[in-house]
Amino acid sequence: MLYVTQERLIIKEMPDTKTPKTEPVIVLKDLKKRFGIGNAEHYAIDGIDLTIRKGEFIAIMGPSGCGKTTLLNILGLLDSKIEGEYELEARPVASLSARRQARIRSQQIGFIFQSFNLITRLNVIENVALPLVYKGTTELNRLKQASAILHNFHLGEREYYMPYQLSGGQMQRVAIARALVNDPSIILADEPTGNLDSHSSHIIMEELSDLHKRGNTIIMVTHNPRLTTYASRVITMLDGRIDTDTGAPTQKSDPNAKKPLGKNSKKRRKSRRKKEVKA
What we know:
The structure is a single chain. 32% of the residues lie in helices and 24% in strands. The chain contains seven helices and twelve strands. The strands form three sheets. A six-stranded mixed sheet has the order 8-9-10-5-11-12, sandwiched between helices. The N and C termini lie far apart (52 Å).
């Protein structure tokens, strides 16, 4: 940047004050997911291009059947039979073995489901510690880590409760604690407040907002437009495609481009002609 003082001309490069963009975590190119064969064939995901950067809180909306949950399953490596390109942290998912994908799911991705999916025969602390079993953590360390995160969610007094002894909001907080016990970098939430009342929904969304502030990448599917206020980016889907995206780059208009004549332009031409006739 160049600036001038009274004494002399000084040329100095000023630091860029704009917040630098973080690196992409997920990149999708012409992603497609096909179901059925023959006359029954249809695309649940039909040519999606999408880049998700680290630390974003994305809310995905759209009518039932538009492909929201299918997209979430693909992002979570639960569905690998796809067409197009999917890169996760600069690695093509197609090049990853099934074992490697399973390791990524258990260590880097946390899942939050609408129906909680708690195991009814396990108590709260055992449910939260379950992902650590697949990681190979010893039982003592599993219980310590699970207890610590339950205390963060104010559920320390209910560690040994059974799921049926909890309210809907408490069960969802247990499900979030389970999703976070492995300290994942990406959190996928499928209608996390769909089965909750407004008060419990507010508590859950505040928890997710706090996780976002800590730097987690959150991708949430929802039907509730009120929840989009918590997101930093809102995507709407329609018929397997992205319909709108608040994070999409805006196209700058060309100042030299010809503009169509409007009513005002025609009025100005008529007034000029009248002036010329009078003159």
